[in-house]
Amino acid sequence: MTNENLDNELDNSGEPTPEYFMETLPGQDRYVAPIDETPLQDVDSVDESAPATSMWADAWRTLRRNPLFIISGLLIIFIIIVAIAPGLFTKQDPNACDLANSLSAASSGHPFGYDLQGCDVYTRVVYGTRTSLSVGLLSTLLVVALGTLIGAIAGFCGGWIDAVLSRITDIFFALPMLLGAIVVLQMFKSSKSIWKVVLVLALFGWVGVCRIARSAVLEAKNLEFNTASTALGSTPMRNLFRHILPNSLAPIIVIGTTSLASYIVAEATLSFLGVGLPTTTVSWGGDISSAQTNLQTDPLVLFYPSAALAITVLAFIMMGDAVKDALDPKSRTA
Amino acid sequence: MGKYLLRRILQMIPVVLGTTLLVYALVFLLPGDPVKAMFGDKPINEAVAAQIRAEYHLDQPFIVQYFIYLKNALTLDFGNTFAGQPVIDEIGRAFPVTIKLGLMAFVFEAIFGVVFGIISGLKKGKWYDTVILIVSLLLISVPTFVTGFVLQYLLGIQWSILPVTAGADPTFLDLLMPAMVLGSVSMAYIIRLTRAEISSNIAEDYVRTARAKGMSNGQVMLRHVLRNSLIPVVTYLGQDIGGLMGGAMITEQIFNIHGIGFLTYQSILKGEANLVVSIVTLLMLIFVVCNLVVDMLYAALDPRIRYA
């Protein structure tokens, strides 16, 4: 249909207005919208004098305005400071315990009281921050690196490499992370360390990132800019690093941020079960586990490390939500 | 559809084999000699030890042991525990308890998650929406074992409404608190998911069209908004069945429930290879089958999706 025909038809359908439509009944108002006289081009045209913006700049602008981001950001900065310099917040040694103080109530200088072993609960909560945070951060970094690498190889190479890697991913996906972690950590029962917990969490956690990285790379691989770059003589490797990976980074960052909290929880759960960290390492999970026996008489000993754990996890979950909103506008919840 | 189903089932085979091999390898590499442990403090009689090793094929290389296990598993013989009990009996005793617990948790999270999600999504911005949101965020951030202790302390010890721990043969009431704990995190996710879906669907054009046609508000909600909003929720619920079985490990530990999770943890500690591998295979089969059912359900609920 040509433009002229279209115009005619519109005119025809609009013209013969029946009389009774025009009649204004008593008490009835007629409202006619003013004609918008701004030419369509002015609205649609691109302002070329404005500074160039990127997806990352856009995301940062969205983030900065999100109260969720500001609150969680401040909380996380505070948590990081506590983790780096616990000495700023307490002058005591978390392992200096005196059985004479066992389960004593809070007193001046010891706001959270003492646990069963006579250790100062406040000091242990402060020192436990470093453990939780380092396990969470290191596991996430490792998971993102491993998942992106395997996912990118699978998505980029395709063919039988993709088929084999995808089946391996399926196998790890079907295995619950906690179950696998307990089995492996049980092997290192006699030589526990933070690094082993991190490695084991990464070993069973990379699958989620891998799947997302694979589909993101697969999507970016088939876009026009990639064909254009190949036509200009770029090698596949250059394409991968210059064009494909930067374009598939956003979903990887989103899943990385959102899963950080779950690694902190996983570490606490493993320590709670007694297979995670060595008993000499101060950790919230371990403290919750040992406070469990006196739940009936001294619930507060269990409450403080739990609250610290919950606040940390909450901060990272809120941060994950904010980053997701900024980088993935389609999933915006509010 | 039939062809798609067949392909999916065929794809499951290498995954199941791979996972059992992986778990078998992991358990096999566990340190400690279970035969030595059987003798306890008594001096080890080498002849008897060798006989036991031969009986359990412990003298064979790992891969041979795996294939023996696999061959027997095909005839539903999953071997014996080191105490001489058939593995299938142990699982048969523990599994009904976990099924009961998992089912209760599933019903709990489905009903409360969807109901609170709908209330929250329909009345966005009201005070109870805010309360529901904060509570669900709290449930997500607090690890399950902490939720367990808090409920144990409040419901069990302070107010004495529910029993604090379950025993060997738990009743419905014994399992009520564990089920709430097990389902709490998923319930929070379902609330958030339902809320987001409802509030985005309610602004869709088809809702306005339905209203414009003169459909009553209740009908619009039931026929259009709810049906469209609950599709992702059903997917989530289906995938969560496998997660519940895994999560049972912590919950059963806290509440002393002698189910699959408890059994798994104990057998990992004891290095019971046969038991661990059998349980993990079982859980994985449940997980894989649930995923398949969810995909089928997805096509049934959403007419836009058709599998070729």
From TrEMBL, chain A:
Q: How does it sit in the membrane?
A: Multi-pass membrane protein
Q: Which GO terms describe its cellular component?
A: plasma membrane
**Biased composition regions of type Acidic residues, renumbered to the chain:** 1-12
**GO terms for biological process, alphabetical:** transmembrane transport
Q: Which UniProt keywords apply?
A: Cell membrane, Membrane, Transmembrane, Transmembrane helix, Transport
Residues of the region (Disordered) are: 1-20
Q: Where in the cell is it found?
A: Cell membrane
- Which coarse location class describes where this protein primarily resides? membrane
Domain ABC transmembrane type-1, by residue range, is 129-320
**Looking at the record's lineage, which domain of life comes first?**
Bacteria
User: What parts of the sequence cross the membrane?
Assistant: 68-89, 137-161, 168-188, 194-213, 244-266, 302-323
One Pfam annotation reads BPD_transp_1
Which PANTHER family is this protein grouped with? Answer: ABC TRANSPORTER PERMEASE PROTEIN (PTHR43386:SF6), OLIGOPEPTIDE TRANSPORT SYSTEM PERMEASE PROTEIN APPC (PTHR43386)
Family assignment from sequence similarity: Belongs to the binding-protein-dependent transport system permease family.
Name of the featured protein: Peptide ABC transporter permease
- What organism, scientifically named, is this protein from? Bifidobacterium saguini DSM 23967
From TrEMBL, chain B:
Q: How does it sit in the membrane?
A: Multi-pass membrane protein
Any one GO biological process:
transmembrane transport
Subcellular localization, as worded in the UniProt entry? Cell membrane
| Residues of the ABC transmembrane type-1 domain | 95-298
Alphabetical list of SUPFAM superfamilies matching this protein: MetI-like
| Xref: CDD domains | TM_PBP2
Q: Which residues cross the membrane?
A: 12-30, 101-119, 131-155, 175-191, 275-301
Stored Gene3D superfamilies: MetI-like
GO terms for cellular component: plasma membrane
Q: Which UniProt keywords apply?
A: Cell membrane, Membrane, Transmembrane, Transmembrane helix, Transport
Q: Which family does it belong to?
A: Belongs to the binding-protein-dependent transport system permease family.
* Name of the protein described by the UniProt record: Putative glutathione ABC transporter, permease protein GsiC
